[in-house]
Description:
Layout: H1 20-25, H2 28-36, H3 43-65, H4 75-96, H5 98-101, H6 119-137, H7 142-149, H8 152-164, H9 168-176, H10 178-188, H11 193-214, H12 218-224, H13 229-232, H14 237-259, H15 263-266, H16 270-282, H17 291-296, H18 298-315
Helix pairs in contact: 3-4, 3-10, 3-11, 3-18, 4-6, 4-8, 7-10, 8-9, 9-11, 10-11, 11-14, 14-16, 16-18
Amino acid sequence: MTRTVSAPAPHHAVPDSEHRGLVGLLPRGVRGYALLSRWDRPIGWWLLFWPSAWALALGAGAAAQKGGAGRWDMLPWFLLGSIAMRGAGCSWNDLVDRDLDARVARTASRPIPAGLVSPRAALAWTVAQCLVGLVVLVQLTLPAAAVALGSIALVAAYPFMKRITWWPQAWLGLVFSWAAAVAWVEATGGFGAAGVLLYVGSVAWVIGYDTIYALQDREDDALVGVRSSALALGGHVRAGVAVCYAAAVACWGAALWQVRPDWLALLALAPAAVQLGGQVVMLRPAEGEGALELFRSNRYLGLLVFLACAVVGAAA
C-alpha cells in the first residue's frame, strides 16, 4: 500500500532548504531551475568538493617528494566543477525519480512534481550543467580527465540504485568520492597508495553521513518501496554509522602515513576523529531528530580533514 502526498505550493523550497529567502526572490521561471540544482542547499557541493581538496592538499606533498609542485591552482576549478556536476546530478536524479518524489512528503515539492519545471526542460538543464563541467574537464591533464570521464556511468546509474539495492549510499559514496581520484592524478600524475586510501576513506564517510540523512525518509521510503542503508540497518544505524566513520578515519590516517610516516602526522586527524565521534554520540536514530543538522555538520568535517591533509602535505 502506498500513499500519495499532495505537493506544496510550487513557490516553496523543499523542507531542508537553507536559503528559502534567497530562492524566493528569484523570478518564478528561474526559481525552479535553482531548486532543481539544489542551489538553496550548498551542503551538497561542499560534500562533493572536499574530497578533491583533500587530494590536492595531500597530493602536493606526494608530488614534492618526486620533485613536483602539485596543482593548488586547480582548487577553484574543482569547486566550480563540484557546483556544476552536483547540480547536473541532482537534476538527473529528480528527472528519474519524479514519480517517486511525488509520493514522498519531503520531496513532493521538488520542481518537477510541483510543476515548476517540465521533464523536457529538466533534461535540457542537466545537459547545460554538464557543459559547464566540460569547461572544467578541459583544464585537467589528460590522465586526470580520463579518470573524470570514468564517473559518467556511476552518476547516470545512481538514481536507479535505490530500486535494486538496500545500499544506494554505497553507490553514492563511489560517486561523491570520485573527485578525490581525479584530483590525486592531477596533483601527482598517477595513482598511488595514499590516493587510493584517501578515496576509500571518503567512500566510507559518504556512506555514514548519507545513512544519517536517509533517517529523515525512513517511513516514507518504506511506504513507497525505496531502499536505503537506514532501512537495511534497522535498529543498528548508530553502530553502522560508527563503523563507517571509523573506517574513514583509519583510511585517512593510512593515507597521511603514506606521505609522511610519522606518528605526529596522525595527530592532524584528531579534530576530525572527534567531530565524527560526536556525530555518532548525538545520533538518535529512533526519533530521527537532529539528523539533518548532523548531516550538515559534515561540511566542517571536510574542512578539518582538508587542514590535516594540508599540514601533512606541506611537511612532507
